[in-house]
DNA sequence: TAAAAATTGAAACATATCTTTCATCCATCC
DNA sequence: GGATGGATGAAAGATATGTTTCAATTTTTA
């Protein structure tokens, strides 16, 4: 289901060698346990001109909880930011953003991310190619 | 659909203020055009003990196409590696891997990634928290 | 402005879908 | 070893689903 989210329980049952009813019970249990979460439809980034992946490392001026929380809420408001992680080490945050071109990224960085009060420095790195991208966790 | 991949066309129609038939036609067109790709089910990483995100930067010994291609195929074989990008700048690749704990990552790195002939160096960075994670591209 | 082309919505259609029920099977525990 | 609890599969049931058709409307083209 991680690879084919729209598979029917009947097909799934055949694939795993169980009954449809058994699949239904297991899926329901996993949903209730919060293991299986939402179903999403993936979009081809190149097809909608968002094929450029940029990674942005951010260092904060202050590490106090309020500033961090404010920055995290702030970063959530940017649709171009698909991923953001609070990091150990020299950089406080690592962001993955998708844009159509470098100009678009410049705008996101200069008029967006860097305008936040708590941000001290940033360092951007551009992906030349997405070698692998999957949402499926191991087993 | 990027946020709710299992929405029915009837619900979608109501949401966007169009008919179900119209939705069906548009979806079919986007699928045929390769814009809408597969539907996937997301899994709660913490629930299956894969809640630790690690970023690994890799530098290659050689930059020749054969070595790169071989490494990229190699990296595809690791289920823990969810994302891998060929990068500009000082590092050749950036990898995001999910593991249960640091021990598990040590094994992936030492017995996996670093065993590849073309790899020169690597640098790993651990995420303390996933602040934002979405698969939905902007608009 | 008039003709042509494309898009739309409503309804009908056929089908696939999830969900429940029930009897059976298996494993476990006292 | 018998009884209890849990899991299983097959079938039935009700419903929601995708897909097509057709007439009407809108947009484009000449």
Largest Cβ-defined interface: A-B, 57 and 57 residues
Number of helical segments with 4 or more residues of chain A: 4
**CATH top level label of the largest domain in chain A:** Alpha Beta
- 3D shape of chain A: elongated
Low-confidence stretches of chain A: none
The strands making up the biggest β-sheet of chain A line up spatially as 3-4-2-5
Query: Oligomeric form of this entry?
Result: homodimer
Radius of gyration of chain A: 20 Å
Please give a structural write-up.
Two copies of one chain form a homodimer. By secondary structure, chain A is of the alpha+beta class. Chain A folds into two domains: 42 residues, Arc Repressor Mutant, subunit A; 81 residues, Alpha-Beta Plaits. Chain A has four helices and five strands; from the N terminus they run H-H-E-E-H-E-E-H-E. In chain A, strands 3-4-2-5 form a four-stranded antiparallel sheet. In chain A, a hairpin with a 5-residue loop joins strand 3 and strand 4. The longest helix of chain A is centred in the first third of the chain and has 13 residues. The radius of gyration of chain A is 20 Å and the shape is elongated. The interface between A and B is large, with 57 and 57 residues. Strand 3 of chain A pairs antiparallel with strand 5 of chain B, so a sheet runs across the interface. The structure holds a DNA duplex (30 and 30 nucleotides).
């Amino acid at each position: 289901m991680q690879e084919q989210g729209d598979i029917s329980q009947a097909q799934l049952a055949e694939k795993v060698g169980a009954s449809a009813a058994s699949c239904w019970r297991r899926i329901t249990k996993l949903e209730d346990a919060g293991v299986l979460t939402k179903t999403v439809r993936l979009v081809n980034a190149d097809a909608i001109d968002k094929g450029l992946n940029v990674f942005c490392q951010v260092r904060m001026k202050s590490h106090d909880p309020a500033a961090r929380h404010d920055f995290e809420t702030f970063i959530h408001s940017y649709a171009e930011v698909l991923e953001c992680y609070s990091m150990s080490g020299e950089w406080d945050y690592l962001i993955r953003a998708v844009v159509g071109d470098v100009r678009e990224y410049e705008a996101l960085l200069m008029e967006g991310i860097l305008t936040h009060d708590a941000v001290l420095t940033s360092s951007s790195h551009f992906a030349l190619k997405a070698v692998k991208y999957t949402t499926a966790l191991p087993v």
